């Protein structure tokens, strides 16, 4: 697989496409906001005017868009990829979307004699830049193996979860834990800060103790420094929690912690933090305790 169509050049998609170019792939890119393609064109990508054009004649098509509505437009729109997908092309959807829609898209792609993998990722922006993403993949094992070169370029690990839809389910279960863990970190910080414990000392304790987590490692310093530059936005975290909630409703799995996490991230969204990093949810706690985690008065 050397000719790749890449659709969706946001926080994750742009660095992923860049890594493909650096490894010598022929990449045709499309983004709804066309200007986002320009840096990649300077790196050697071709720019498509529509998703259909991006998909035409490719060995593989990778999609990385934000939600169900966006992926429907990419596939089913007037200039959608289903119009031009060739037999034998492999579609790799790395978006986080509902498992039901994943299965629907897989069926449509299979009708055309093409292959489909749902392959969402974990690792956020730094891992996308470094090529160290982890892919959780649903689909046929033989197709996963055939696409191994692509996955190896973009990430450090591929975990085959099962048939179509399994990658999507795994991502929603995983991101449920991500949301809960980040709230646990924020709440612990708030308890310590309100009692006068220095945030640096508390973070060191967390990272060395049983409360240690990826959340603490990735977001602890950002919280202390009030650096909410976006690695994975609060709005997208909330979107994923809503998808996970719909999944648990459908499967009958009780999920009280998920529902609480969804409510707290919704509070952050309502207060205008949606475009900031998901760690900005800590600002809800800071409002409640009347100070920053670093011990400064609120502005």
Automatic annotation (TrEMBL):
GO terms for molecular function: 3-hydroxyisobutyrate dehydrogenase activity; NAD binding; NADP binding. Residues 3-162 form the 6-phosphogluconate dehydrogenase NADP-binding domain. Keywords: NAD, Oxidoreductase. The keyword Oxidoreductase applies. The active site is at 171. One of its GO terms (biological process) is organic acid catabolic process. Residues 165-285 form the 3-hydroxyisobutyrate dehydrogenase-like NAD-binding domain. PANTHER family: 3-HYDROXYISOBUTYRATE DEHYDROGENASE-LIKE 1, MITOCHONDRIAL-RELATED. This is 3-hydroxyisobutyrate dehydrogenase.
